Amino acid sequence: MNWIMSQMSGTPFTAGTSGTSVNAPANTQFADQILRCVAVLGGRGVGQPHFYPLAFAAVADVRFGTEARNILRGPGVFNLDGSVFRDFKGWRSWPCGSAPSASA
After folding, report:
1. At a CB cut-off of 8 Å and minimum separation 6, what does 45 contact?
2. Which of 44, 59, 60, 104 is deepest in the core (most CB within 10 A)?
3. pLDDT score for 26
4. What are 98's strand-pairing partners?
5. What is the Cα–Cα distance from 19 to 45, expressed in whole angstroms?
6. Does 65 have pLDDT greater than 60?
7. What is the mean pLDDT of residues 82-100?
8. Has residue 40 been placed in a domain?
């Protein structure tokens, strides 16, 4: 029997907004975090937010946003693969392998 497990956390990222309020076109503008805790909704796909979007707001003043950098992590990945092997004696005693496998 063999098992291979892969578990990875999501990529860290920061919620951004338009940089026009900073008057510095090459700079990245960070959003204002208006809720202390950002709820993880767990949505995936178009129109399904992974984080609560109203926890952040666009910056309207000439300043950078209040959100800390890289506080959010995207959806992670979990994979578990298993295999079972058995050798059978075939024609003229040559071994023949059989390997059914499963993936979760």
Report:
1. none
2. 59
3. 75
4. 86
5. 26
6. yes
7. 66
8. yes
